[in-house]
Amino acid sequence: MNNAQRAPVGEIPNAVDGSPLDKAPADNRRAGWVLALGSLGAFVVFLDTTIVNIAFDTISHSFNTTAGHLAWVLNAYSLVFAAMLIPAGRVADRYGRKNIFIVGIAGFALMSALCGLAPGVGVLITARALQAVFAALVVPSSLALVLHEFHAARRHVAIGVWGAMAAAAAAVGPTLGALLTEYVTWRWIFLVNVPIAAVIVVLGKRLLHESRDPQASGLPDPLGALLVAAIPALLSFSIIEGPSRGWSDSWVVVGFVGAALALPVFLWRTSKAARPVMDLALFKDRQFSEINAASLLFSTAFFGLLLANLIFLQTEWHYSVLRAALASSAGPVVVTLIARSTTKLATVVGHRRVLLAGAVTWTLGCLGFALFVDSSPHWVTHWLPWTLLTGLGIGLTLPVQSGAAVAKLPPAQFAIGSAINSSFRQLGAVLGVSIFVALLGTSKMGPGVDNFQHIWWVFAALGLAAGVVQALPRLRAAGSAPSAR
Fold this sequence. Notes:
The protein folds into 3 domains: about 30-210, MFS general substrate transporter like domains (Growth Hormone, Chain: A, Up-down Bundle), CATH 1.20.1250.20; about 220-275, no CATH class; about 280-470, Up-down Bundle (Growth Hormone, Chain: A), CATH 1.20.1250.20.
């Protein structure tokens, strides 16, 4: 069977009774509740992609470990999350989206408790990886449950709200993490998930209807899923370890070479597997390919800058954990305020214009940090303007990318398309953290303002590159059009 004949992994073609998805029920009140519950599920799992960042330095001192070692507390979650998102969609299709959503939320709560009680960094990293497995079950199942409640004409609105909640979660994570770290302990960064998850499980059992794909059978290719995680893991290892071991160190070289060799193996395996972990046919859609490339670039810049700024405020300006989070909170506030509006704006003026504006705004904010921030703490004049600009850039970008990634796909491929886009975003998180640790250039915190200025330049360039990816098709079209005389 060739790629064109295979059913895409993670489709949502039918309800449990076999009715087509496009004939989903129109009960607005019920749909609103399901949207709220599904968005809350996405919020809590995406929250954990950034809530740990603010406590990075605190946990490092608590376990007496290095930045490079502790980076795996962040990367273990992002790597496993990215690798499991696409297979999780197929699991939800086969065994029921409600069942998998409930199992995912419950397991996420259990692993969050293990993270909060971890006696050492090794246990914490392991628990984070397991936490990500269950988080991955939540994302595609929550979106599928939401989409089943909306008619095709309103589905883009639901996707926009769901995506906005995910973006807001990533943005507000550090502030919430700071409050818990400052007033309780960093362990409550993880333990807070338990009561929230309990509420979701109780309401989910009452409000959600089961749906599944009767044609779903088997699971995606396990080797493909392994390669999805292995490639960025090898790359991340080499980027993180390069500065301390030396770029010519045999282990660092092996990591880079291994990642380079594994990529074509993954593409070959995906083209041959009976149930590929990723449907490459989706990338024939130019918009889908462009959005995912832009998502990878922008997420690398976003997650890297988020961690860099929090570390800078604590080590260079000597802010407390809470003060550092509050000093950076203006950006997340902007994201939360405009996230939903930007998805509506993109439907009016087109996603390219909004994403390009977001990339330019982001770049200006990063350049402001690089050019005007120094060792003297002047928050109002030297920090706040650039925090607002980067927040505006995030709000114009992350929510719009989530909706634009699936906008041109058939409804049956919304879930898999969204899962792939989320995977690219999580891979960007891994690369962003790894690049930051590498540019930090030392295993000790506090490398000096000059190092951070270099870091801000790099993340400005990556954010601008995400915008260029969106602009290139228009530039090509303008260049190929006959000139008017």
